[in-house]
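Take one record.
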Amino acid sequence: MTELEILRRRRELVVLSAELQRATLVRRLERVSEHPLHSALGFAKAAASVAFVWRLAAIFAGRLVLRKKGARRGPQPSFLARWSWVLRLVPVSRIFPVLKFLNR
């Protein structure tokens, strides 16, 4: 076997090794999306967004019912009470970004 044939054989082995590594990486990346934790987190994310829309709809419906009944307006809420209503609508992850880090 000449030196040129040895180099050619080594080159073929290196190319084969690279192809096998690439195939392994592609297979692993495909399996990442199938992980049960990822699907559970996806469901939790969808449920959180549905809960937010549900909250808004409930508040809107409650105010609409009160308006239709002609309910007597009570005293104006305090500044703190108004902000507490606003904070109910803000996602917790915006207020506490450290929760995203803990979710990893």
In short: The two ends are 54 Å apart (CA to CA). The mean pLDDT is 78. Residues 29 and 95 are 33 Å apart (CA to CA).
